[in-house]
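Let us walk through a complete example step by step. Step one is to write down the protein sequence. Step two is to encode the small molecule, magnesium ion, as a SMILES string so that its atoms and bonds are unambiguous. Step three, shown after the inputs, is the structure prediction itself.
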Amino acid sequence: MAKKIKQIAIYGKGGIGKSTTASNISAALSTLGYKVMQFGCDPKSDSTNTLRRGDYIPTVLDTMREKQTVDVEEVIFKGFNGIYCVEAGGPAPGVGCAGRGIISAVELFRQQHVFETLDLDIVIYDVLGDVVCGGFAMPIREGIAEHVFTVSSADFMAIYAANNLFKGICKYSNSGGALLGGIIANSVNKPYSKEIIDDFAEHTKTRVIDYVPRSVTVTQSELQGKTTIEAAPDSEQAKIYRRIAEKIAAHENSYVPQPLDGNELRTWASKWAEKLLELQND
Amino acid sequence: MSEILENPHGNCSLGGANAALTAIKRVIPIYHSGPGCCLQTTAGEASQGSVRLPYYVQYTSLPCTNMLERDVVLGGVDKLDRHIAAALEILDADAFFILTGCTAGIIGDDVQSVAKKYQNLGAPVYAVNSAGFLGESCRGYEIAIKALLDNIVEPKPQKKNTKLVNLLGVMPYHDPYWEGNLEEITRLLKLMNLKVNTFFSHDQGIKEIKSSSSAALNIILSPWLLKSAAQEYEERFGIPSLRWHCMPLGATETAAFLTAVGAALGLEDKAKKVIAAEEKYLYRYLETGIGVQNWRRFSVVGDASTVISMTRFLANDYSFTPDCVIVTDCVFRPDDKERITDALTKLEYSRPPEIFFTGDQWEINNTLARFDQTMLLIASTNEHEFAMSRGLQFFVAAYPNSERLIYNRTAAGYRGALTLLEDIYSNL
Ligand SMILES: Nc1ncnc2c1ncn2[C@@H]1O[C@H](COP(=O)(O)OP(=O)(O)O)[C@@H](O)[C@H]1O
Ligand SMILES: [Mg+2]
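Step three: the predicted structure of the complex.
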């Protein structure tokens, strides 16, 4: 029997640090000896930049635009430590359907049995923030990713996006869709940030798998076109990313989250708003 | 069309828009849709209306962008652009209407800009947002009329033509008798010295549609269609509307209709004279049938205008007894339903029929089955099987009609009363 490929999707609000986290996890996993592919599912198509010295690569949809049939070999590029990098890409802003683009790109890879041919251990889908339409939910449907991790800070908008993602997961959970692996808390430096995320996790019956501080090492590495794992392997930050990678490699059991409904989320947020005001006034 | 419908009595708005626009002389649609939509809607709405090949350019010869996956993902506007250029090169028309299907509608292709580009080059290319999901054929018909108002109708008419009327509310092909009906109503209005714009008759075209903004009156032969178009004609061109609740049929209804037109245009005496002459003609024939023609209980299934006109004619003029009337249009405004119900129940002396609003075949058949006294069923091809199973007398007068060729046969006015009676007493 062929070995089981671990497929993971990373979701979260735009700009929250999905690609940074995903790339560092990919880099860490590959240094641990796994064969990894990172599949950028964001029309921005910059998911794998820090795995490739800041290079943009031709996307699946770029190639689709130029040719009648797409040979997947033309859209797979090797990055740091042999990591396979793919960007789904998107239509020109304001035209076409980016969501359908994600579906088309992912289906293309499935049809051509790429993951099996490359003998991959792990595929990481780095997907755009909100699950705005069916297309962006594609990676969490039956037979694609198995585990979903959401990157979130303590900002309300990031938590709102995470909560929406939980709703998407619930929707597909009965039909063999992906389940939640956990929350990766990013940019948590203030003690109350941790408290907020923990509280949200408690309310949604989910778990935070780790906390990533905001760190200038990340910025410095990014400016060199590298992940922290590559540029500063001995830093504190790299240690954290490695720790997360190990947890993900070992991760087996995901679960169905319990998202808050609109009212619950507002009530929850306003309770925190009051608390933060008190903190400020102290 | 929010629920599941068995055997719908109409098409989607793309089908409706296409049936209307291609009923205009020398007009060609350019489909911006998936490959199936083009065939499905052209074969759906228009060719089930009267067993004819209706278009200036037909079926598979219609230009269609055949949107495929890459067009969905990347946008289909470039492909559309190329198709328009090619269509203009090989096809000759007075107007090209780009009709968008669901696919283009969902991804929001900017079809308007492409149309503008060709307009700036002097080509009569117009964008119509007709995505099928907007509704059923009736909606498509309204979309078509709006497209004409936006693109064809003269925006600044020089002066009013007090003798010109626009005849609206008759859906080409959806009403299987549409052409004959337009001819009969036009004939009567001409007798009142009026000039009639029908937009869709074979002797009319873009020129007549242009001139519609200088008309003195809009006559809308439908209990519920074209409310916004009527309002737009009124607001932009000061043209009032006379809404008549159905296609006038038979002496009583047609006389009332012509009297109303006369009153609206100050032609009361003219109307009286026409009515008198026409009634004389009609009754001369009717006399010869007395004694041969026996009484019936009947039921009607069809669009609102058709069921009203059949019911009122047979009940008021012919003393038949209506049992059950089923309106298949998707009438959504409560006041429209009320107007339709009024027209069907306020009869001269007959007991009013029971009225139902549904387009679902299962419901229609179940409803009809409850009226086991009915002897005559006037409906669409969809109900033919039911009529056969019950041994009812049956003929088709509503969409879909895929069993009877109809060119200029009419079910309107005075002449229509005669042909309809010929129908009723023919296939006995
Ligand atoms: N833990 C962190 N410390 C410092 N900077 C970070 C951290 N996480 C993300 N960033 C920065 O935030 C910006 C957005 O991150 P990115 O991964 O592109 O977000 P996303 O993929 O969610 O849109 C990048 O410039 C990135 O370097
Ligand atoms: Mg990103």
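Step four is interpretation. Residues 217 and 235 of chain A are 8 Å apart (CA to CA).
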